[in-house]
Amino acid sequence: MKSKEQLIKEGNDLLACVKKAYVHGVDMPQADVMDQVNIDKLNDWHEQVEDYVEKYGLNTQRDRLADCSWIVNHSQVSVERIKRIIKILESVESK
């Protein structure tokens, strides 16, 4: 399992990639603008964060993460959800 710091760095890198790929100011840009590799990385990262928070997080953090159960939905990527997930991860005690 990756460390919290690794997951945060990876999340910020993916967020920067998403922001770069889309028009600024759009919260739900179309996923087809990004290549499938980045979408796959985003989904893989999200699963790893879920595993980390499930293992080390508090119930409130798990509940908040459950409210962000998707990043890509109907070919749209939510920048705000990625930011929210990173904040939840940052709030988990380091292990």
Features:
95 residues, two-stranded antiparallel ribbon
Poorly predicted tracts of residues: none
What do the pLDDT scores average to?
85
For the largest beta-sheet, the strand count, sense and barrel status come to: 2 strands, antiparallel
Task: Give the C-alpha Rg.
Answer: 13 Å
Count the beta strands: 2
Number of domains: 1
Label the overall shape.
globular
Can you give a write-up of this model?
The longest helix has 21 residues, at 36-56. The protein has one domain (4-91). With 95 residues, it is mostly helical. The protein has a two-stranded antiparallel sheet. It has four helices and two strands.
Topology:
Blueprint: H1 4-21, H2 36-56, H3 59-66, E1 72-73, E2 76-77, H4 79-91
Antiparallel strand pairs: 1-2
Helix pairs in contact: 1-2, 1-4
Please summarize what this structure is.
The chain is mainly alpha-helical and 95 residues long. The protein has helices at residues 4-21, 36-56, 59-66, 79-91, and strands at residues 72-73, 76-77. The protein has four helices and two strands; from the N terminus they run αααββα.
